[in-house]
Amino acid sequence: MDKLTFTVDVAAPAAVIWEIWSDLEVSTEWDTDVVSCQLKGSFAPGTQGVCKLKNGLQMTIVLEEMTIGQQWSNSARLLGANLRFDHWLEELSPQRCRVTHQANVSLVRPWLWRTIVRALLRPALIKSLNNLAQLAVQRAKQIQHI
Fold it and tell me: Is residue 99 classed exposed, middle or buried when 0-12, 13-18 and 19+ CB atoms within 10 A define those classes?
C-alpha cells in the first residue's frame, strides 16, 4: 500500500526510453507537473538536483541506483516528505518495451500525510507515464523516417 506502481507497454525501442529518462532537464516534455528539473552533474548515481513543480513547490532529488539502459532510482524530498522513485525498463522485442514507474511513500510520516501524498502522486504518475510512452512512440517514428 505504501508503493504506487504503474506499468505501460510502449511501441518503441528501450533505448528511446532510456534517452528520454537520462535527460532530466527536458522532463517537462513528459512530466507535465514539472516546470524545470536541473541536475548538478551528470545522470549518474550520487548526482543531486532540483525539480520545480507547477504548483510552485521545489523538490530536491538525488539519483540513487542505476543500471544503464535498464533502471534508475532517485530519492526526493518534498514538503518534509521523503520519497523514492524507481524506474524500470524491460525490452519485450527490438521495437517494444515495458516501462514501470514506482513511488515509495513508506517513509512519509505521519500516516495521514502519507495518505495525502499517495493520493496526490497517483494521478501524476499515471499521467507522466502515459506522456512518456507517447513521446517515446513519436521519437521512435522520427528515427524510423531518418
Answer: buried
